[in-house]
Specification:
Elements lengths: L3 H9 L1 H4 L26 E6 L2 E6 L2 E6 L10 H10 L6 E6 L2 E5 L2 E5 L14 H7 L9 E3 L5 H4 L15 E5 H7 L2 H7 L5 H11 L7 E4 L4 E3 L2 E5 L8 E7 L2 E7 L5 H4 L13 H18 L2 E4 L7 E7 L2 E6 L1
Parallel strand pairs: 6-7, 7-8, 8-9, 13-14
Antiparallel strand pairs: 1-2, 2-5, 3-4, 5-6, 10-11, 11-12, 12-13, 14-15, 15-16
Length: about 325
Amino acid sequence: MFNRRQFLGAAATGAAVYAAGAFTPMWAQNAQNFGTPALPSPGFRRMKLGEVEVIALVDGIARRPLGEEFVANAPLSDVRAMLTSQNLSPDFIDVPFTPFLVVAGSRRILMDTGLGEFGGPTTGKLLENLRAAGFGPNDIDTVLISHYHGDHINGLRTKAGEFVFGKAKVMVPAVEHAFWTDEARAAAAAGGRMKGAFDNVQRTFAGMPAGMLVPFQPGAELAPGIKAVAAHGHTPGMSMFEVSSAGQTFTFLADLTNIPALFARNPDWAVSFDMDPVMARQTRRATFERIVAAKGMVGGFHFPFPALGQMVTSGNGYSFQAA
């Protein structure tokens, strides 16, 4: 559990995450002076994993200027050089948002929900791409939430307060839920930069019908062949999800790393959204080491389309190879 010093440190960077008094992460708004990112078409990609299917579903892409604050512990010149070395713009960052659907027999299990109606014009495409892949919101029986940042939970409810996946159980990390719903922490955030984040959790989860919200502990089996894997650091209780079928594995990394061209290649760099950067870096390195050794498939919420592939060693870090 985060202590008061860590909480206040996270609050100090809260403005980089949430617009004051709003539910929408600032980085979900496009930087018009750098143009508009092109969305993939079709906005989904299927992958067979043993006897199940994993589908990457694009919720959108946001473009944001690259500033000193994005990488909290590296000079901007080094960050620009790393992007340039990979033929990426050194002036802006494209941040994708990609939930995943697991189709296992009659089960339809969605991992994270995107920005819903609360993002910019090139976000909020999850339902459109879900339908393009052959499914509707009422087909989803389970929603797994990795953590409580707005781009992962805002798609649960509309602006009118309606539940988007009304027939689904919403399974959440117990540690994460306890942190964001703690009344003392919420009161401490009042008037501060993290107020929008706490308000957003309240808006999203308050009033859920009995039995809809299901907290889980690290290591729990959430559905046959799907288990929770603790990945604390980015937030107090973030969870990854590991899917196993017929000897094959797929791990939804959630926000273990933000843009892989930066934070996988340099696992010790800290994105400004990591609430406990030290723990996040430790978790990132340990997870990548394990996944590379196992040669498993991964999916990253902020990875470039199709957001499905493998991690391989690259210098002092790792690189993402798309499937």
